Amino acid sequence: MAASAPKLYVNPGSHPCAAVEAALRLKGIDYQRVDLLPLTQMIVGPLRYGGNTVPGMRLDGERLVGSRTIMRRLDALVPQPALLPPADDPAQARVLEAERWGDEVFQGVPRRIIDAAFLRGPRAMESYVGDAKLPLPTALLRPGQPLTARLMAIRNKARDEAARADLAALPGQLDRVDGWIGEGLLGGETPNAADLQIGSTIRLLMSLGDVRPLLEMRPAARLVAYFPPMAGDVPAGTLPAEWLPAAGQ
User: Fold this and answer.
1) Does residue 130 contact residue 13 with C-beta atoms inside 8 Å?
2) Euclidean distance between the first and final Cα of the chain, in Å?
3) How would you write 187-212 as a 3-class SS string?
4) Structural Rg of the chain based on CA atoms
């Protein structure tokens, strides 16, 4: 074990941060969470943990950036329960590939969709704060929410056409996740790294009232059981109706 508790730097509502927190809880590792205001990781991160995205971690002077990197380090720190199958198990490569897809492809989907929603209803951002201990009270942050929403959308390239394309592609992506669950690769009694990576994205998508009907009856929705209830909600009707695929698609 580390000599001191890891310090985890997060943005409230961030799904990759939620994946790492779930891994820490699974392994019974005490940690200190540092909540950052949106976008401040671009300034704080390089100084504190060596990157400009979240999650970031400091572990006895070691600096770690990104959910996959951190989860590999947690497996080395506390081997059981393992987040990956054994090295001699062919399933390990498949879990790693599903985790990579969840990080590099699927993770950006709710980020762009929710940014498009925040541009239309920036007050919804407040609901994602949850139990975060931010350096400023929400009332003082409220006037800056429209600007924050615009800056987040620019950083995440969340143009309307991108969010609309994400929504059109979502049923096919959920079919992939459902298939992995059907094969037993995901959805086991104890989550693996891919469960946490993909499940955190499903959990954030389900906080969007317009998107929730696309997920509720799918096997993929079971992956949210690895996480505590999601703080945050974007009311149905925030996104244009013509953007949304049919729930049964």
Assistant:
1) yes
2) 47
3) CCCCCCHHHHHHHHHHHHHCCECCCH
4) 18
pLDDT single digits (tens) 127-176 = 999 889 998 888 888 999 999 999 999 999 999 999 999 999 999 999 99
CA distances from 193 to 69, 177, 196 (A): 11, 14, 5
Closest CA to 142 of 116, 123, 114, 117: 123
**What parts of the chain have a pLDDT lower than 50?**
none
With helix as H, strand as E and coil as C, how does 121-161 read?
Answer: CHHHHHHHCCCCCCCCCHHHHHHHHHHHHHHHHHHCCCCHH
Q: How far apart are CA 31 and CA 33, in angstroms?
A: 6
What does the block give as tokens for 76?
Answer: 């080395």
Kindly state whether residue 84 falls inside one of the protein's structural domains.
no
Last residue of a domain, one of 51, 77, 103: 77
Residue 162 lies in domain? 91-243
Backbone dihedral angles phi then psi of residue 43, each to the nearest 5 degrees: -100, -45
* Domain CATH for 236: 1.20.1050
Rounded distance, CA 220 to CA 195, Å?
10
Cα–chain-centroid distance for residue 76?
22
Using the 8-state DSSP alphabet, how is residue 106 labeled? I
Please state the pTM of the whole predicted model: 0.95
Q: Which residues contact 169 (CB under 8 A, 6 or more apart)?
A: 109
Q: What backbone phi and psi angles, to 5 degrees, belong to 220?
A: -55, -30
Domain finish residue from 77, 107, 126: 77
**CATH at 53:** 3.40.30.10
Rounded to 5 degrees, φ, ψ at 56 are -130, 155
Q: Same domain for 67 and 105?
A: no
